[in-house]
Amino acid sequence: xSGVESQALGQVKEERFPVIKADRLIGICVALxxxxxxxxxxxxxxxxxxxxxxxxxxxxxxxxxxxxxxxSIRAGxxxxxxxxxxxxxxPTTAVIDGNWGFGFHVSAKAMALTIEKAATAxxxxxxxxxxxxxxRLAAYPLMAANAGMIGxxxxxxxxxxxxxxxxxxxxxxxxxNPISIAVPSDLDGPFLLDMATxxxxxxxxxxxxxRDETIPKGWIxxxxxxHTTDPKDYCRGGALLPLGGTEGYKGSGLAAMIEVLxxxxxxxxxxxxxxxxxxxxxxxxxxKVEAFRPLDRFKKEVAxxxxxxxxSPPSEGSSGVFYPGEIGYLRQQERTISGIEIENTTWAKLRxxxxxxxxxxxxxxx
Length: 366
What we know:
Strand order of the largest sheet: 2-3-4-11-5-6-7
Number of domains: 2
CATH class of the largest domain: Alpha Beta
Helix content: 40-55%
Radius of gyration: 20 Å
Mean pLDDT: 91
């Protein structure tokens, strides 16, 4: 756990933020999204996706975003019940137009189609465009891993304004452009990579603003290109930095390649949408393990590899080695039992929406 996360956890306990069980939180979010116009399937997909992000410790992609999604529905940026359209396909590929539907719902259907194709053809890939924010990207490769496949997903911000300055620049030109890979294994938790190509996800900066915290140096620069620890400087024209610090060309280069896969390969227009509409274009792929070797043996050896990594003695100041995805799994186990801590500003917004929709009593916000 980082210093900022430890500090945030301490602040949560000190300020006694509301602690809500996952099932109740999903129910609240489903009701609010349905009241805003989402279908049952869409509301369930978005609510579960956000709460699962909270459970895994990715609070920046959790229920803090529900009021933003509802604002986007009202602005016409998200279109509930939008038609899900296959623009073109082959036995191993597909191009999906989400028609500005919920990214959670659109991308889950796209990955399901990719898995279906890979089950027959061994490998498959798809691109998705014209959809809203997809949430925590790991959700989609995990679908493939649960089907005995290696899953990969990457996302860009399409026509949305940039968040990240390319290495050496001071103005944003890239998205946070995350990439996620999930691998089936015999481990208790998923063997999973889920990372932004920026130094940090933009949502973590917004979370620091909501919690009135400072952030580590190296996350962002201000509008003049100077390093800053004030997250509000990002909202004043600053930019996120690419992953890698002094070697930031690595994160910047990876982000550029993801832009090619998710933006240029989909044919999505890279010109900035002046309205600020979210547009997560995605590239997804699934690789059937049994096309290469027996699945049971592979899963066993992935687990053995993870334990081999963990057997490395800890370096100075370290609590030891965690395999990719382990920390999120451990947080999920803890928060499933203890509940999810929601910052007061987010809870207040959810309460206000419940009151506006006449649901405060039904959702126990009274």
